[in-house]
Amino acid sequence: MPVGRTLTRAVHQALSPVCGCQVLSTSVRCISFSPRQVTSSDASFHSVSFSETDHPRVLITGGLGQLGVGLAKLLRKRYGNNNVILSDIRKPPDHVFHSGPFIYSDILDYKNLREIVVNNRITWMIHYSALLSAVGEANVQLARAVNITGLHNVLDIAAEHGLRLFVPSTIGAFGPTSPRNPTPDLCIQRPRTIYGVSKVHAELMGEYYHHRYGMDFRCLRYPGIISADTQPGGGTTDYAVQIFHDAIKEGKFECYLKPDTCLPMMYIDDCLRATLEILEAPAECLTMRTYNINAMSFNPEELVNEVRKYLPDLQVSYNVDKVRQGIADSWPVKFDDSNARKDWGWKHDYDLSELVTVMLNILNSETRVARAN
Ligand code: AKB
């Protein structure tokens, strides 16, 4: 599907269901408990948090996006099926609905979210709901509501109930004035997208709640994530997923970024494992609360060359999208993740050649199954 249409669909999907609930969220918010009532010296603040001998009870918001289902699978293997609840405002496909607990949850509806946390005795929250970079530029108000107001709800509920909170950040949290090659953990962050601004805000708010209230906030800055079974929606790095689908189905691919636009990327298995590892890392290992994680950097031309080793007839054209090119040009070229490697032993498994092999293997076998039926 052309990128423009994918983007329009993503904007549409994001718009319709969330908007309906915004009004409700403002009215219930006034009666809720505020974490500002808790001081850092209040010993009871941590009293309900996860004890190391139990399994955590995990809630994943925005669970039907690119990463939620895969993360739920990983966490369920580790902590038991019923201890990991996927949630979203969208209707789950059959295979997701039948694979473990799924619940409706709207992060803009404070009361609904709080009820879920209380009724299910949640101890860890993974907050995946967000509008990505390109779709956010197409709807700044919605991105502000979901990415900022939604985050405030999540932070307050996590503080109120002593949860361990994981919020992903991104290479998009950096901007044109950041050092881009390499980009360290601590440097200038002046992103020029609402997505980036909201992610810097999330990093700072989480770190503030950690220092002010002792909240167990953990955050990884993800590169562009490449996955076969689930697709991203409305990002700038999505071309690196779409190429595999188009190469296999159509034998041709139109890229919206210039051939030499180099960005940090990661295979989904590495991303999910990193997330599990930071969630489980002993607090004393963490010298920071927000870490860059890295695997590889490549540009469209290098990716095309690697794919052509297996599909030599692949036809590629470039039709540059100004918005996404502008965003990509302001993002890191290479990510410095030395602190994650030092503090909690982060190590990626997949580089470019392994990424291409695994993506083509998975999608090729799906294509064969589809054809056989
Ligand atoms: C996007 O392209 O917006 C995301 C990201 C890098 O955070 N995939």
Can you walk me through this structure?
This protein has helices at 3-29, 68-79, 94-97, 110-119, 133-138, 140-160, 194-213, 239-249, 268-280, 300-308, 322-329, 338-344, 352-372, and strands spanning 58-61, 84-88, 102-104, 124-127, 164-166, 169-170, 216-222, 224-226, 252-255, 263-267, 290-292, 296-298, 315-318. It is α/β, with parallel strands linked by helices and 373 residues long. Strands 1, 2, 3, 4, 5, 6, 7 and 11 form an eight-stranded parallel beta sheet that branches. The chain has a three-stranded mixed beta sheet with strand order 8-10-12. It has a two-stranded parallel sheet with strand order 9-13. The longest helix has 27 residues, at 3-29. Bound molecules: 2-amino-3-ketobutyric acid. The site of 2-amino-3-ketobutyric acid has 11 residues, from loops.
SSE diagram, text form:
Blueprint lengths: L2 H27 L28 E4 L6 H12 L4 E5 L5 H4 L4 E3 L5 H10 L4 E4 L5 H6 L1 H21 L3 E3 L2 E2 L23 H20 L2 E7 L1 E3 L12 H11 L2 E4 L7 E5 H13 L9 E3 L3 E3 L1 H9 L6 E4 L3 H8 L8 H7 L7 H21 L1
Parallel strand pairs: 1-2, 1-4, 2-3, 4-5, 5-7, 6-7, 7-11, 8-10, 9-13
Antiparallel strand pairs: 10-12
Helix pairs in contact: 1-6, 2-9, 4-6, 6-7, 8-10, 8-13
Q: Which overall shape is indicated by the principal axes computed on the Cα atoms?
A: globular
Strand fraction equals 5-15%
Instruction: Give average pLDDT, whole number.
Output: 87
Q: Which structural class should the secondary elements be placed in?
A: alpha/beta
Main beta sheet, described?
8 strands, parallel
Oligomer classification: single chain
Poorly predicted runs are: 1-52, 368-373
Taken in chain order, the helices and strands follow as HEHEHEHEHHEEHEEHEEHEEHEHHH
Tell me the total number of β-strands: 13
Radius of gyration: 20 Å
Helical coverage, percent range = 40-55%
Intertermini distance: 22 Å
Tally of contiguous helical segments = 13
Q: What hetero molecules are in the model?
A: 2-amino-3-ketobutyric acid
